[in-house]
Records
---
Amino acid sequence: MIKIENRSPEDIANYGRRIGEAFAASPGIAETIPHDDLVKSFEIITEFYYRMGTLYATSEKYEGFLAYWDKNTRQPLRPALHMIWRMLCEIPFKSLLNIATGSNEQYKKLYRKEKDYIAVSMVVVLLAYQGQGFMKKVLELPFAEAAKRGCPCILDTDNIQKVVKYEHCGMTKTAEKKMAHDITLYTMAYLPTSA
């Protein structure tokens, strides 16, 4: 895995569009948001993770992307406000409501009593590389960090197919919650033996 640094705004926008395309092809909340709105939202979100310093890629080929941090990481105010402003200006209100439904971060509530955890906020394998084992490669970095700290690595997903993939990678489903639009949000955890 490589940390995405020193890239142009055009590069970051391109990564975001490719990430958005991969999410748009997945069942779940993505089906309730117009394609172009979803892709644009991931362009904005990817820029936020880049500005936050939490965006990683599998390699210089960019097969997959990841954004993660620990429980005590504080989101920097300026990038967060910039993301919110762009979302409000560039995404129609109805789509924003659906996006907000899918970004509940259920794991924060479930694991709030944990001393520490590694939170994976975005994990994606681009369309051209899906089905080739890259999901395990994308998750290696946060799993290693969780093992080093002896804490869980957690994420939420609204896609039952991804639940199966995450289980194959070593995660366990720890909770599920019914959301709007007949969507279920699943919380997944990787629990290293020392956690």
---
Amino acid sequence: MLNAIKPDHSGFVWIHRVIDALLPILLLLSLTQLQNIPWHDRYLTMGLLGGFVFVIASQMVGVYRSWRGRSLFASAKLILNAWLLTWATLIVIAFLYKDSENFSRLAVTLWAIITPIILIGYRVTLRTVLAKYRMHGNNTKTIAIIGAGKVGQHIANIIQNNPWLGYRVCAFYDDNTELHNTQINDIPVKGCTNQIGDIVNQNHYSEIYICLPLRAEQKIKQILNELTDTTSVVKFVPDLFSFDLMHAKTSELKGIPVFSVYDTPLSSTSNQIIKRLEDVVFSSIILVLISPILLWIAFMVKKSSPGPVLFKQKRYGLNGKEIKVYKFRSMTAQDNGAVIKQATQNDPRVTPFGAFIRRTSLDELPQFINVLQGKMSIVGPRPHAVAHNEEYRKLVPKYMQRHLVKPGITGWAQINGWRGETDTLEKMEKRVQFDLHYINNWSLWLDIRIIILTIFKGFINKNAY
């Protein structure tokens, strides 16, 4: 019976926690001394609180899990996420206690920037030293893989291509006799899984990876039973290739591992808060800056043809909930029923001024109001008309997964050229593919990248008419 399946933590986890708790206050002390700023109890409180909150945040986002097998970029991103949570917490506390005037803004700003750099830097240094140590054959673990199928070969390729991990695959064991005495990527297939316990004891493997398909339940149980008579670490790798779980996330429920098959980083409360802060701050600034443009467009729309300035169209929002999205009216007639015809090239319904604001995406500027309302985000999958959703959800696999997040004014699909009319099923499939990539890989930095790229190539597009 499973009582608790714990995440694999770094071997230096307690060292990291101690350093993470002490570094913020030591850096803050150093910065105040370098700038000849008097040190007082407020700085002491902020430094201690910063270290404490960072350790808690790091535990929450997974910073202390094992670094083996995780890229440097992924590890650095986790640290930045933890520090952003810490910084947001400190700002809220300072706001509630109205205590910000007791701090040097320069010192606190430098502290906020330098601290995550140092936290990442010392980990990179430690990891680099360990990697070089392992690449010379030190601290190396020998691995045997049970199952020479797709999963086993994939694990072996990862290990072979990353020698700094300190793993060395010595053998495959598989019951397919045709593979015996052959090599797969220079790794020998040494035999069957019969009497695997004796084989492991004789070869003194450090770790055993069981990479058998889930349908081989009885065989897996037999192998696990035999391996209880060994001193090797045994790891089970689920056959994720048999299902569409390559973007899944894992969690646990009372010690039982659970796979979130269709999920997104934005299902996390902390990430939702970060995303909402991003939307409120950016949309508020943008609306203030573009207010003269909004007034000019409104005047021109009213002058171009009879009808309202704004058009409200029904869309699907977060979790498929119906919302009303604002746009400047660009047509003489607007569809909002069960059947909606997409705008096409030289569409007679589009006014001359409407063609201009559609081509330059200026018709979508009122959607920043939707963002402030919380119905949309600045970055996310573009919202489609309800009628189009009902049509394409039956034709494009995973189409409705686009609604795991709020729709956006711009998105990953749009900056990669998949905007405008979707006159073929392939175009919609491509748009959905890019939208799902964004949903599965969301981060604050990805949003910022999309916003910057939108400025340079997202507004004007040959497919927008």
---
Amino acid sequence: MLLAILLPFLSFMVRGKIITGIICLILQITLIGWLPAAIWAVLSLNNARADKRTNRLIKAMQENQK
């Protein structure tokens, strides 16, 4: 989470989203764009975590039905 706030573009790069990271870096280069870039990175990280959690729940439910 700290990485997403301090270096938003790097947060995307570490998660394998290279093109998104480059776009975020371009936004981050401007002083005004730093805040939107940080917000974008944090929201993206939270969405990825929620998707991962949802997939685990679906998998667990499917295993219980068998």
